[in-house]
Each structure stands twice: as structure tokens, then as C-alpha cells.
Please model this.
Amino acid sequence: MSSCTPYRSSRRAGRDGFPQMLREEWTRFRSARGWVLAMAASVLVTVSLGLLIAGGARSACVTGKGEGPCPAPLVGPDGTAVRDKYYFVHQPLQGNGSITARVSDMTGQIRLPDVVPGVRNVKEGVVPWAKAGLLVRQSLTQGTPYAAVMLTGAHGVRMQYNYIHDVPGGPHNGPQWLRLTRSGDTVTGYESDDGKTWAEIGTVTLTGLPETVEIGLFATSPGALWEMAKAFSATTATFDQISLRGANGPWRRDDVGVVMESDGKTPHHPGGVVESGDQLIVTGGGDIGPATVEGGVRADLMLIGGALGLIPVLVAAVTFFTAEHRREPARSSLPVARHPARVLAAKAVVVGAVAFVAGLVSSGVVVPVGLALLRAHQNPIQPITLGTELRVIVGYAALTATAAVLALGLAALVKRGIVAIGLAITLIVVPYLLATAGLVPWLLMITPAAGFAITQSVPTFAHVDVISSLLGLYYPLPPWAGLAVTCGYAALALGAAIAVQRGAARRGPGPDR
Model:
């Protein structure tokens, strides 16, 4: 009866120092043309697919002047792309002051998929992030600093400011009193269920707020999401019990951000206000918040071929272990390495380093060159800081290295190359492709594919509903948390493989077959 032969290296005893192991494993890797070509293929696939997408992208927008290139995205105070469209009933406030009002009713309209082709299917309803409340802002110029306290369609009371910041208040249990106060650069939001007992939601500082600001009531509603599309929605809010301190002029009415139809004269989905006694009934559509998909093409789209580009890396990492393992039974007369676990660790360092370089070359080429192609073709680009661009580039390289180490660990555990390759692709590549198609996006939380979040160039904001697809900018985990999941899988696989190697070395070789 024979037993399975444990992994053994062909190197002689006495030459098992870790630096020597690294040199020998590096020599083995670079001497094998197939492994080098696999890394080159990874670079070629990733760069080619990214540049193909960038080179073929063409954006066009219809405005009052006709069809033409889309304008550059609107940028907020924090340098992010934002949306700033709403209906505003307001007054100028000079110095300190406040506004208080009750939102007594909130309704809306949602355009659903057409049942009859060509016949619009508009139903009553309020989308989850429809907003109606009180707003103070530097000016009516889009993209300027602001703070608002509001009632939402399904997320209770919120205080939001400067587009990307969101502070939760309490749940919505009927008519809601809201209050917004301004003291210098400081704005504070309050809520109340009865107009007598008030609770503070949050306080924010709007640096450089001018002496005279605009303060008033607003309503807006982002598009309704269904399947892989977004359609029009609007919300109507009834305000009463309105009181102002520090402002006492006539109400001004502005449909901020409204665009014109192709005739250049007719507003597209206009808002409005109706006065009824002491009530103001305000209707608006749009959003005040981050622009995710609408903000332009984002940098991580250049790495859309990165998942396929990982496949040659995974194959090379697996065969880097199994190629030598297959030869070991024929070498049973050679001395057994004294530290097989350290040999495996050396292999992990070598394949991880080579994969990191391959990933760095891929992302370092395709991201900046792809963005340059997009700009050359007059496509709007999501604003990206140098720090974020570097994180995307280096992060993809780190993901490539981690994926290679994970594949090596799987190969050392299962000892069968085709099985290890299949496992690695199933765990890393397949979940990413499914999430790109909008299927089972939660896999990007629990599988090694979570590491692709490190390439996210625009955050997934909690206060913006997005399509649950990577094409819709949806990552369930933040960048570094996603990479940490992949690193955890790699460490677990490699650690288990090293433990198995140590156990096999202690038991010694079994009898020859």
C-alpha cells in the first residue's frame, strides 16, 4: 500500500536559506517562457479591453442649442460631480436668522415602464430619496455650498450639506416640523413631531458663507430606478406653519437647474408652487446630491477588462506550484528540503511580486491613457484627484498580486492544477462578471472578488439610489475593506497550505509507489 507523496523541492539540503530560495524561485519563474508570456497576456488583455472601451465611447447631449458634446460635470465644494436641480421658494437672509415650517403632506409621480409602447405610464408615488424641506445656500449658482433639513420619501428626516454629506434624523410619523438656523458660518437643523419639542439633527460649518444668503423651502426628486434604467419622478410637498426670523420679504420662485427642450424655450419637467391660504405647495424634480452615473465616465471603467486579465495570472500562479509538484515522484531519491513551507512562502513572494508588476503596468497604462482618449473625444469625465487615481492604479496591482497568491495557495492545497484554476476563477472572476451584469452583487461582499472595490474611483454614497451593478457604480464595500476581504482569503489559503506542508515534512515521505 502506498501513500501520497508530499511536496518536495529538488534543491539540495543546506541551501535552504530564504534569500537563496527567493533567488532560485525567481530564476525558475523567469526561465519559463510560458509563465512570462502569461503575465504579458494579462497586461495585453487588460489594456486592450480598457482602451477599446475608451476609444469607442461617444457622449452626446440634447440641449436648447441642439445635439452636441455633453457639458463637463457640475462640481461641488468637495471637488466631486454633483446634481443641483430643485424648485426653490426663497427669500434673501442678511446675517443670522432661521426658518421653520411643517411638511404636512408629501406626494409624487413616478414614470414606470410603458405598458403600451409610446404611452407614458405615470403613477402616483414617492421615490425613496425624494426630498422636501428647508434650504439655506450661498447663492442660486449651481454647485455652491448649502445645508438643508428635509423629509424624504422612505428614509425619514435627514440633514444634508454640500452634496456628499448626509446626517440621519428620526423616522417619519406623519406631519413633520423642520427648522434651520444660521449663525455666521454655522447652520443647525432641527426636527419636531409637534412643533413644540425640538431635537437637533446636526450642525455644520459652511466656510466662507456670505453675509446675505438665500433661505427657503425646496422640493426635488431623483429618477425612479427600475431594472437597469432610470426614469422621471417628481414630488409635491405641502408646507404650512411657516415662519422666518431675519427675513421678511416677498417669496421668490426659482426652478434651479431646469433645462430646456430642443426648442430652447420649453422647460423640461418644470417644477412650480401654488399658494393656498397659509400653505405653499411646492413641486420639484431632480436632486441635490452626488452625481454618480450622471457625472460622467469614471476612471475605474478603464479597468473593466481587469477581471479577464486576471485569468492568465491565476493560471501562471497555479502552474508555478503544480509544474514542480508533478515532477517530484520521479525524484524521490533526492534529499527532501528541510523547509518545504518556506519554499512555498518563497514561491508566494515571487509570484505575488511578478503579478504586482504586471498589474501595475496594466493599470498604469490603461487608466491615464484611457482617460486621455475619453477627453479627446469630448466625453464628460468624473472628477478624480491625483490621490484617487494613484489608489486605483496601485490598488489594481495589489489586487492582482493578492489574487496570484490566493491561486498559489489553492494549488498547494488541492494539488490538482485544473481544479485549482477552476476554483480561483470561480472565486475571483465569476462574481465580478455577474455583478457587472447586475446579478447577485452581494457576492462582492463575501468572495475574493470583493477586492475589485479598490479600483472604485467614485464612492458609493448611501444617500443615492443606484442600480445594483458595477456599470451603475455599485460596490457593496468601500475600497480598502474590499481589498481586505481578498487579502483575508489569500492569507487563509496560503496559511493552510503552509500548515499542510509542515505536517507532511514532519511525517516524512511515504513508501515509493
Notes: Residues 82 and 291 are 4 Å apart (CA to CA). The chain has eight helices and 20 strands. The two ends are 8 Å apart (CA to CA).
